[in-house]
Amino acid sequence: MHFTRDHEWVRLDGDIATVGITKHAADQLGDVVFVETPEAGKTFGKGDSFAVVESVKAASDVYAPVSGEVVEGNAALSSAPETVNADPEGEGWFAKIKVSDAGQIDDLMDRAAYDAFLATL
Amino acid sequence: MTDPTLKTTVLNAAHRALGARMVGFGGYDMPVQYEGVLAEHRWTREHAGLFDVSHMGQAKLTGADAIAQFQRFVPGDYAALKAGRQKYSLLLNESGGIIDDLMAGKPDHDGLYIVVNAGNKYEDFAFWRAHLSGDATLTVLDDRALIAIQGPEAAEVMVAHEPVLAEFGFMDCARLMLFGVDCYVSRSGYTGEDGYEISVPAAEAERIWNTILKDARVKPIGLGARDSLRLEAGLPLHGHDIDATTSPVEGALTFALSKSRKDAADFNGAGRILKELADGPSRVRVGLSVREGAPAREGAEIADADGTVIGVVTSGGPSPTLGRNIAMGYVPPSHAALGTNLKVIVRGKASACEVIDMPFVAQRYHRKPAA
């Protein structure tokens, strides 16, 4: 699993990347009340806003950690947004993306680097 | 790290000890949540929530001309207000816009005790000092903290400490000894629930806060839930739902206009306000029930059934009590009737909504039967 400085995670399986927000991000947001995930077929560049997550207080953009085409948004989050708090790095995934350049993963942090980054915040 | 430009209330260390997440609000480093906004919101609706609102401005206005001078800028009849009562009112500019909303009462026999919004307090106090004349003196009570307890169990909790508080009805106020110290207290609040606001000497605040928190029915509540609670109660937040451009008529706050004062038309902005009362305003604050889609928040456009933009959302979000999204915003009176079907536009998507009555969640104030 790899991580961005904006607190997204990505897990690559072949050329399909599953992406979501980290436990740190979910904890900071607090109670998630609404999630807007992208539809299959949409394409995003690395760093583009591809989803929105809303707490009671505010809406936050979620940025694509890698470029590619969405093959599936996590539809379960629309009826159960609290899954993002309960299991942010598992069942609370946002989308599966067919990556256009798997090499982009190498620019991201691994778990140890991300933990070290969190310690600086 | 705390932003060094932010001020702190005397309860700052107590909030941190309780594990609060702190944010800047109104120039102060304040707790936005302790356990979580939803849990705190629900706790307040079911039990009793304790709020530090010491960032708000407290002042006394005294002198033989205090009430007459106060009434030049607010539309409530404070001359007729009985001792031991308080009233919600509005500080108005010359064009009838709302500089701030406030609570003012007669807790003792020494003029008015006034509470104003944190983010406006310095502007308000400067306004009073610049405009008051005659025998009227404003004294800022910056040596006091302000603690609110709200919820259906708030009265039981407080009466166990101080039996005299049982005698208070909604909007009753007094200056008296509570917890062994000189306090101003009122039975009022900003959540739609029964409860009290208690002004205590700053040096005693942490002791009193901790004493009240010892009761298992009480939990500390942050500003996040304070905002969602007041939204459900239909109460406007100054700087968002009302501001120096909105009149009391536009803001749907005509209850704050006392009949005697309207008849006398002797307060700032009376010309515009009376004209709007007679002819109708160009826009009015309404409640919206959003039936689908994402929460509509401040800044979201409101459109009519044809998609023409007619207004804007000023506050909105999920209602934990109702389990759906609610909002308040401004629309022309032609689209303000209850039941009108409108749309809110969030991130380019239009969601159906309907004008509904406020409060969204019924208020549960402790009103005493008329004597």
Question: Domains counted in the coordinates of chain A: how many?
Answer: 1
Percent helix of chain A: 10-25%
Percentage of β-strand residues of chain B: 25-35%
User: How many individual helices of chain B?
Assistant: 9
SSE order of chain A, one letter for each helix or strand = EEEHEEEEEHHEH
How far apart are the first and last residues' alpha carbons of chain B, in Å? 54 Å
**CATH topology type of chain A:** OB fold (Dihydrolipoamide Acetyltransferase, E2P)
Count of helical stretches of chain A: 4
Sheet with the most strands, sense and barrel status of chain A = 6 strands, antiparallel
Approximate shape of chain A: globular
Biggest β-sheet: strands ordered side by side in the sheet of chain A? 1-2-3-9-8-5
Write up this protein.
The complex is a heterodimer of chains A (121) and B (371). Chain A is of the alpha+beta class and 121 residues long. Chain A has one domain: OB fold (Dihydrolipoamide Acetyltransferase, E2P) (Beta Barrel). In chain A, 20% of the residues lie in helices and 36% in strands. In chain A, strands 1-2-3-9-8-5 form a 6-stranded antiparallel beta sheet. Chain A has a 3-stranded antiparallel beta sheet with strand order 4-6-7. In chain A, strand 2 (8-13) and strand 3 (16-21) form a beta hairpin. Chain A starts with a strand and ends with a helix. Chain B has 371 residues and is of the alpha+beta class. Among the domains of chain B are: 12-54 and 142-232, Probable tRNA modification gtpase trme, domain 1 (Gyrase A, domain 2, 2-Layer Sandwich), CATH 3.30.1360.120; 282-356, Aminomethyltransferase beta-barrel domains (Elongation Factor Tu (Ef-tu), domain 3, Beta Barrel), CATH 2.40.30.110. Chain B has 9 helices and 19 strands. In chain B, the strands form 4 sheets. Chain B has a 6-stranded mixed beta sheet with strand order 10-11-12-9-3-13. Chain B has a 6-stranded antiparallel β-barrel with strand order 14-17-16-15-18-19. In chain B, strands 5-6-7-4-8 form a 5-stranded antiparallel beta sheet. Chain B is globular, with a radius of gyration of 20 Å. The chains are: A alpha+beta (121), B alpha+beta (371).
